[in-house]
Specification:
Largest sheet: 6 strands, antiparallel
Distance between the termini: 90 Å
Number of strands: 6
Helix content: 25-40%
Shape: elongated
Strand content: 25-35%
């Protein structure tokens, strides 16, 4: 039986031809698949209710419509929205300091409001509590 020297390749693996390009090709395909999956997930999430900036704008318009154009809001927060059942609306919590009609209303208007997209713009269409 002939002796195998350390310099001879064993089996079918050729040390001159690495399988690294094949691995890189599979990794790049995997990366593209993951990026595509993440894009779909983000698109499905963003296609939902109003963003916080849209809720803030809708709330300011609601306050102005119910007081005067001089109304201002400060410290706006809105963290949670839930899809309303049987309607193209979302109910969202809102907290903001309101100043209108030369009065400081503080946080008296904090509550849960219904937001509906009307003509491409989110508007408050009701107050839940």
């Amino acid at each position: 039986m002939p002796a195998i020297s350390a310099s001879e390749p064993i089996g079918l693996v050729d040390p001159q031809r690495s399988s690294l390009p094949l691995l890189e090709m599979h990794m790049s395909k995997l990366c593209f698949a993951l990026v595509g999956l993440m894009s779909v997930c983000l698109a499905s999430c963003s296609g939902g209710g109003p963003a916080e900036t849209e809720r803030e704008h809708a709330f300011l318009q609601f306050v102005k419509a119910n007081s005067n154009e001089e109304a201002r809001i400060e410290d706006f927060e809105s963290n949670q929205c839930t899809k309303a059942e049987g309607a193209p609306s979302y109910t969202c919590d809102v907290s903001a300091k309101v100043e209108a009609m030369e009065r400081d209303f503080g946080h008296q208007m904090d509550g849960v409001y219904t937001f509906t997209k009307v003509g491409g713009t989110w508007k408050i269409t009701g107050r839940v509590q």
